[in-house]
Amino acid sequence: MGSVIDACGVRHEYPDGTTAIKNIDVTIKQQEQIAVIGANGSGKSTLQLVLGGLVEPTVGSITFFEKTTDAETVRERLGVLLQNPDDYLFNTTVREDIEYGPAQLGYNRTTAERRVESLADTLGLIDLLDRPPFRLSGGEKQRAAIASVLAFDPDVLLLDEPFGAVDATYREQILHLLSNHTGSMLIFTPSVDLVPKIANQVILIGQDGGIAARGSVREILTNRNLLSTHGLRPPQTVQMFETVLPDADIPLTVEAAREFLLKRES
Ligand SMILES: Nc1ncnc2c1ncn2[C@@H]1O[C@H](COP(=O)(O)OP(=O)(O)OP(=O)(O)O)[C@@H](O)[C@H]1O
């Protein structure tokens, strides 16, 4: 399968001399769904900016879609959601913000409106479409920002903490939208509990800003020593079952844990 992002020997230093990420050699292939986890300050957001083509690496190179190192030529194929939703919401109304993507893609008016309505409906934004984005709550802003990124229908999603300010109901809706995304997806997050629901692979960023490990969700999230070396803990279900079950059988989500317990009772 072809690669969508190929990073070779990447390092990024901020102007004050801080090295945020280093020795990054990573290939993201079509349709891979990867959670990039790491402790606070390990370099996840910087890696997202660099892999999303918004920041040039200080050293090394990024090739997009096996054809270019110039992110601007493939900008609309990369859906980058930054940590701060205010970075997306710059129009007069929420509707205009979400419509911006389909308009850029040259969709006709009816198709664009349908896309906006469908995303707004799933993300509970219908009644907020005519509001100025600055009059939204934190969670509403985050949902509007996600809608405006998904409206582009990009080939690759790079999402920094998409669930941060969002409540449980809309978290499920976002998970549902993301599970329908057929392209590649990278989710950058310090919280491991949702990872088994959204990803099938994990990249662990170490506290030195390098890739400490890459593997299946189960392989990485049941490895308590590896996680604790890099300032993280396994998901709660792993913490509950790790002394009771072998790693291969530990339920990774609450739903899987419930199923396991019900089966055991019957
Ligand atoms: N603009 C900047 N100038 C200088 N150093 C920075 C800048 N932005 C981030 N850093 C530093 O780079 C390192 C990586 O930061 P980054 O924001 O990429 O980490 P992160 O893993 O996303 O953290 P978090 O989980 O807290 O969001 C940290 O040491 C941070 O202090």
UniProtKB/TrEMBL annotation:
Pfam families: ABC_tran. The keyword Membrane applies. InterPro entries: AAA+_ATPase, ABC_transporter-like_ATP-bd, ABC_transporter-like_CS, ABC_transpr_CbiO/EcfA_su, ECF_ABC_transporter_ATP-bd, P-loop_NTPase. Keywords: ATP-binding, Membrane, Nucleotide-binding, Transport. GO terms for molecular function: ATP binding; ATP hydrolysis activity; ATPase-coupled transmembrane transporter activity. It is found in: Cell membrane. It is a peripheral membrane protein. The keyword Magnesium does not apply. One of its GO terms (cellular component) is ATP-binding cassette (ABC) transporter complex. Residues 5-233 form the ABC transporter domain. Gene3D superfamilies: P-loop containing nucleotide triphosphate hydrolases. SMART domains: AAA. Belongs to the ABC transporter superfamily. Probably part of an ABC transporter complex. Responsible for energy coupling to the transport system. This is ABC-type transport system ATP-binding protein (Probable substrate nickel). The gene is nikO.
